[in-house]
Amino acid sequence: EKGNFHHFMQKEIFEQPTVVAQTLRSYLRPLERKVALPQIDFDISAVDRITIVACGTSYYAAMVAKYWFESFARVPVDIDFASEFRYREPILTKGGLALFISQSGETADTLAALRHCKAEGQTIAVVVNVPTSTMAREADLLLPTHAGPEIGVASTKAFTCQLAVLAALAAHFAVKKGRMSAEEEAQIVDHLLEAPAALNAALDHDEDIKAMAPLVAPARDVLYLGRGPDFPLALEGALKLKEISYIHAEGYASGEMKHGPIALIDEHVPVIVLAPSGPLFEKTVSNMQEVAARGGRIVLISDAEGLAEAGEGCMATIEMPKVHPLIAPLVYAVPVQLLAYHVACVKGTDVDQPRNLAKSVTVE
Ligand code: F6R
C-alpha cells in the first residue's frame, strides 16, 4: 500500500497536491471564483467571536487560521490547546462560534472541549478528516478535510488540508461580514487554486532536502524561525523533527529570538529560517544576521528572490516557488515535513511509528 515509497509518512507528504486539490473542490467554485461552503444554518454575520481549540499539529493550523480570520473578516479569534482550554474557565459569549480542528476526530481533550462548548450553547463547527468520527457526529457544522486515511503517526497531509478548509472558511466569513468584495474573494479563490501546483513545485526539491539532511542529523538542538502566518510553520517544523528524529527542536517567532533563545546559538545549532520574500523578509534577514554573527549555521528556506538576497553564507538553502502569502503556510509545510523525514531516515528511526506516540490520543 506504500507503493514506491519507503514509509507512509513519505507517501502522505507526496499526496498533498492531490488531496489539497480534492479538499478545495468541496469549498470553492472555480468558474464563478467564489467560496462555497456546506449549508450553514446559522447567521455568520452575527458571529462576533470565534474560539478555536485543537491539539498538536491541528493547533498550529488554528494559529494560522487566526491570522486569516482576523485579517480577512476582522473577527477576533481565541485559540487554545484543548488540554488548557477545558480547565481554564474560558469566557464564551452568547452567539459565539467554537471551532475544533482534528485529524482523527477522537482526540480526548478536543472532544471534551467540544462538549463543554456545546453545553455552553456555542455553535459547534469541526474541521475533521475522519468523517465517521465522534467529533463529526457531534458537530452542528461539519467541515471535512478530504486527505484520505493518514497512517503515519506524524500528521502531514491532514495539516495542509486543514489549512485549505480554514482559508476558505475565513474568506467566507469575510464575505458574509461585508469585509471582502467579490473581486477580493475571486482573488482568494485564484490563489487557493494555485496551491496544488505550488505544493508540487515544493516537492520537486525533495532531493535537495535529502542531500542536506546529513548536515542537520548530528545536531542535538535545532531552532526554527518564522514570522506572521509562517511562525506556526516554525512550530510545526520543530514538532515534526522532535517526533520522528528525536532531536530537540524549538520553533520561535523570528523577532522573539533576541529575547532569550539567541543564548543557545553556537556553531552546533542549526537554525532553520522560513522566510518567503515579501514585506516581512527584511526583518527576518536581520534576525538571521544576529544568528550568523554568533556562528549559528543557517538553513534558509525561501523563494529564488529571497535566496538571491540572503542565501549567501548559509549552511544550506532550500528553494520554494514564489507564492502568494495566503498559500505560503501550505507550501512551506512541505520542506519542514521533508526535512524531518530525511533527518529521521539518516538517523534510522521508525518514521511511521515513533516511540511513545499514538496516532490518536483518546485518553487525557
Ligand atoms: C503531530 C501529531 C499530533 C496530532 C495531535 C492532534 O504530528 O500527529 O500532534 O496533531 O495529537 O490529533 P488530531 O488532529 O487527531 O486531534
TrEMBL record:
One of its GO terms (cellular component) is cytosol. Its EC number is 2.6.1.16. It is an enzyme of class 2 (transferase). One of its GO terms (molecular function) is carbohydrate derivative binding. Keywords: Aminotransferase, Cytoplasm, Glutamine amidotransferase, Repeat, Transferase. The active site is at K359. Residues 40-179, 212-354 form the SIS domain. Homodimer. This is Glutamine--fructose-6-phosphate aminotransferase [isomerizing]. The gene is glmS. The chain holds residues 244 to 607 of 607 of the full protein.
